[in-house]
Write a structure and sequence with these properties.
281 residues, alpha/beta, seven-stranded mixed beta sheet, two-stranded antiparallel ribbon, 6 helices
Length: 281
């Protein structure tokens, strides 16, 4: 924790685990803030039942969403051969996203999937060799694997692969592929357990990764009775394929996107975003 003269407080946390669960981190952070505010909370216990994931895809080979790296020792961050830079922007769902995806009756617009499809397509236009045909999707488990009154990983790590050029695909085609992403948690868990912690792997940026934090209540935490006016999320130490994080803005009709890519690609990707209306020209 870092306390500032303006009475602000910064809280930082690091972990070295392939299956690092950001959703449980935010859950724990919100509980911690309640404790600081003097509220009484219920502290769940660690589950004593089998914590291994049930494999929903027994025919799937080795997971594509992780990558073994050279030993990092006590550094915890993998050295990169490319300089990675971040760019953050807000967008309005109705104005900047709806034009890219046809409305289907009363169906709710899959905001994260559309955003991932638009960004994936535009990065593919810039990154021609090799084109990112495989991406990783990181999001909250829709079935919520946490047992009652216990703590368990609730983050889903999935892989999406297409065989045709992404830059030429429609956003709708990419969205449908993302919706059929293959859950790879069981394979990752097995690899992590088999090496007994002696090998180092990365998930974020091993392949171009998209992380959906839309379901996390980033404004739940209250300090001195006040909620955050704005929230910024990013992940450091990622692989060279890059990471896109999508999360809620203070206004319900908006989303925030934090994108981390190789420096040589960033300006060209932003230029593509301007052409398709994702960011202002």
């Amino acid at each position: 924790m870092t306390r500032f003269k303006c009475r602000g407080l910064a809280f930082g946390l690091s972990w070295a685990n392939i299956m690092g669960d950001s959703f449980s981190l935010f859950y724990a952070f919100n509980l911690w803030v309640k404790v600081l505010s003097g509220e009484k909370i219920y502290a769940p216990e660690t589950s004593i039942i089998d914590r291994r994931f049930q494999n929903p895809n027994p025919t799937v080979k080795d997971p594509e969403s992780i990558k073994q790296v050279d030993p990092v020792g006590d550094l915890w961050i993998t050295p990169s051969n490319k300089k990675m830079v971040s760019y953050c922007f807000n967008l309005t769902v109705t104005d900047q996203m709806s034009p890219h995806f046809p409305a289907n009756g009363d169906d709710q617009i899959p905001v994260f999937e559309i955003l991932a499809g638009i960004i994936w397509k535009n990065i593919a236009k810039v990154r021609e060799d090799p084109e990112p045909l495989t991406v990783t999707i990181i999001r909250k488990d829709p079935n919520d694997l946490k047992p009652i009154r216990s703590i368990r990983n609730s983050q889903m790590i999935s892989s999406v692969h297409v065989d045709s050029p992404v830059a030429e695909a429609t956003v709708e085609e990419l969205v449908r592929c993302i919706e059929r992403a293959t859950d790879e948690r069981c394979g990752i868990d097995e690899i992590g357990g088999s090496c007994d912690g002696s090998l180092d792997f990365i998930v974020y940026g091993a392949k171009l990764a998209f992380m959906d934090l839309s379901e996390v209540d980033l404004y739940e935490a209250k300090v001195m009775g006040k909620s955050p006016e704005s929230v910024y999320c990013n992940v450091e130490g990622i692989g060279e394929e890059g990471l896109v994080v999508v999360y809620a803005a203070a206004k319900s009709e908006e989303r925030v996107v934090t994108m981390t890519l190789p420096e040589e690609e960033m300006e060209r990707v932003k230029s593509e975003f301007k052409k398709c209306g994702l960011i202002a020209p």
